[in-house]
TrEMBL record:
This is Expansin-like 1 protein. It is found in: Secreted. Residues 1-25 form the signal peptide. Keywords: Secreted, Signal. Residues 164-246 form the Expansin-like CBD domain. SMART domains: DPBB_1 (SM00837). It comes from Ipomoea batatas. Its main location: secreted.
Length: 268
């Protein structure tokens, strides 16, 4: 179902913004940086994205704080990156995959990752040697998140105050995508209200429709954007702290409008 005409400008504006920013980002290309680690994953769980303790279940605790250019004011929350350290004496060719759950304000590294993820880059028996370095040179690239059988889910934040305020976050956002706009409406209604990004992965609104709720959102993959419609997600008696199944999976892969990668011979 196509969105009403008065909403089309939002899609055009958002996609044009992504096109401009992605022209230099080229997430799919291989990049080089230095990576350090947090000794406690709890630091990343309580990070700027707002996932809280749920983050530990996303990717086996392989979490990351990313610099502002990758965090993207919260659009980058939930993005997956494959990285491998460049010391062949300590590290495997496969490396590991991390998921962005926090903002990294350290301008010396693109990522600060959990110690579990840091150790996972090492060859067998070399993880402690790698940890002793404290910081490692790595290659990294954006990769699709794969939650297999898990559908996209909506978590109702504890700060929600029915019926006047609703705050949510999306869980298990698959593919190589970013959610850049969210609308909510009563099931069966075409009267959509937009939600605003509060911070990180948290979206909210003070214009909460009554009854059961449906959502639609703009998902971008590189420069390409499209609407997704989750038709019947939350019951009329929705409750704080509950996860609701959106009954759809996002699997889009980024198609960026940037030049060919200078070196993209890294095979996963």
């Amino acid at each position: 179902m196509a969105p009403p005409d008065h909403h089309l400008w939002r899609l055009c504006f958002l996609v044009s913004s992504i096109l401009i920013s992605s022209a230099s980002a080229c997430d799919r290309c291989v990049h080089q940086t230095k990576v350090s680690f947090f000794s406690k994953a709890s630091v990343l769980q309580s990070g700027a994205c707002g996932y809280g303790s749920m983050a530990i279940a996303f990717n086996g605790g392989h979490l990351a704080a990313a610099v502002p250019t990758l965090y993207k004011d919260g659009d980058g929350c939930g993005a997956c990156f494959q990285m491998r350290c460049k010391d062949p004496n300590l590290c495997t060719k496969q490396g590991t995959t991390v998921i962005v759950t926090d903002l990294n304000t350290n301008n010396q590294t693109d990522f600060v990752i959990s110690s579990r993820a840091f150790r996972a880059m090492a060859t067998q028996g070399k993880d402690q040697d790698l940890l002793k370095l404290g910081i490692a040179d790595v290659d990294y690239k954006r990769v699709p998140c794969n939650y297999k059988t898990k559908n996209l889910a909506v978590f109702v934040e504890e700060t929600s105050q029915k019926p006047n305020y609703l705050a949510i976050k999306f869980l298990y956002q698959g593919g190589q995508t970013e959610i850049v706009a969210v609308d909510v409406a009563q099931v069966g209604s075409s009267n959509w209200n937009f939600m605003s990004r509060n911070h990180g992965a948290i979206w909210d609104t003070s214009r909460v429709p009554s009854g059961a709720l449906q959502f639609r959102f703009v998902v971008t993959a590189g420069y390409d954007g499209k609407w997704y419609w989750a038709k019947n997600v939350m019951p009329a008696d929705w409750k704080n702290g509950v996860i609701y199944d959106a009954a759809l999976q996002i699997t889009d892969i980024a198609q960026e409008g940037c030049s060919p990668c200078d070196h993209d011979d890294w095979t996963s």
